[in-house]
Amino acid sequence: MCRWIAYRGERTAFEHYVTEPEHSLVTQSLRALESTAGTNGDGFGLGWYGDHPEPGLYRETRPAWSDENLRYLCRHLHSHLFFAHVRAATGTAVTRQNCHPFACGRWLFMHNGFVGSWNRLRRKVEALIPDALYPSRLGTTDSEAVFLAIVGAGIDQDPIGATSRVLRALCELVNEDGLSEHLRFTSALSNGHDLYAFRFAANDHANSLYYREDGDQVIAVSEPYDKESDWIEVPPDHVLVARASRPAEIVPLFVAGSAGFEAERKRSQRVIGRI
């Protein structure tokens, strides 16, 4: 599966987190330690906030380890909030439009996971995207489709609520007709001020997610880039919320007592128990 890092804090160079560490994101593109795909060579991308409300993007289809431009960019680019991602494709083409991160307006998104039986469910998932946002659908990945559905579900008013509503809809789709397809959703989302990192799965085990906090600096990662002991694992079905000038917190992804969703979760847990 993909590997990624999200940073929010004092303005800093990307290289301190993306290329320099012992187990940097570039190293993880070759030898990931906590991924079902040991190699993540189907492209990479950077997303960051600077002088404009909307994020900047750089995405490339070459493997991160073989693109010399990435090291130059990471040395010279600085930001208070940035994303970096290395991709392991799960059935869709290796194109720039399919590389993460994705942007829509002021929102930035990247994902590690997949929607099971994507070819069968693609039209139904894309139907969750409002018509006004569909022109922003530039690629063919499940990740981008889910992101645009979240944007259309009220992201500006309630990012966590919008995400949970879309995940509920996805749970219904992957469980329709008793098929119990796998769904993994470990992702990062930002509006340029606040950082949200989600860890969720249905009918499967959730992909790894860790974070580290030091003062105003919060870093979320798919897997740690060093051997320090201060990395904290985000539990499944929870969200890391890192708002500007506030301590980071872990909150439940779903409101307790949602009967429909609880039924889907119980069914998912039974499937996991048989794996």
Explain what you see.
The protein is of the alpha+beta class. The protein has one domain: Aminohydrolase, N-terminal nucleophile (Ntn) domain (Glutamine Phosphoribosylpyrophosphate, subunit 1, domain 1), CATH 3.60.20. The strands form 2 sheets. A 7-stranded antiparallel beta sheet has the order 3-2-4-1-10-9-11. Helix 4 packs parallel to helix 5 and helix 5 crosses helix 6. It is globular.
Question: What's this, in brief?
Answer:
The protein is an alpha+beta fold and 275 residues long. Helix content is 26%, strand content 29%.
Structural class: alpha+beta
CATH topology label: Glutamine Phosphoribosylpyrophosphate, subunit 1, domain 1
From the 3D coordinates, which CATH architecture would you assign? 4-Layer Sandwich
- The level 1 CATH classification is Alpha Beta
Give the N-terminus to C-terminus distance in angstroms.
Answer: 19 Å
Largest sheet: 7 strands, antiparallel
User: What's the gyration radius in Å?
Assistant: 17 Å
- How many helices does DSSP assign? 7
Low-confidence stretches: 266-275
Helix content: 25-40%
Count of DSSP E strands? 13
Give the helices and strands as they follow along the chain: EHHEEHEEEHHHEEEEEEEH
Secondary-structure map with pairings?
Blueprint: E1 3-13, H1 15-18, H2 25-30, E2 44-48, E3 56-60, H3 68-76, E4 78-86, E5 102-104, E6 107-115, H4 118-126, H5 142-152, H6 159-174, E7 183-190, E8 195-202, E9 210-214, E10 217-221, E11 232-233, E12 238-242, E13 249-252, H7 259-274
Antiparallel strand pairs: 1-4, 1-10, 2-3, 2-4, 5-6, 6-7, 7-8, 8-12, 9-10, 9-11, 12-13
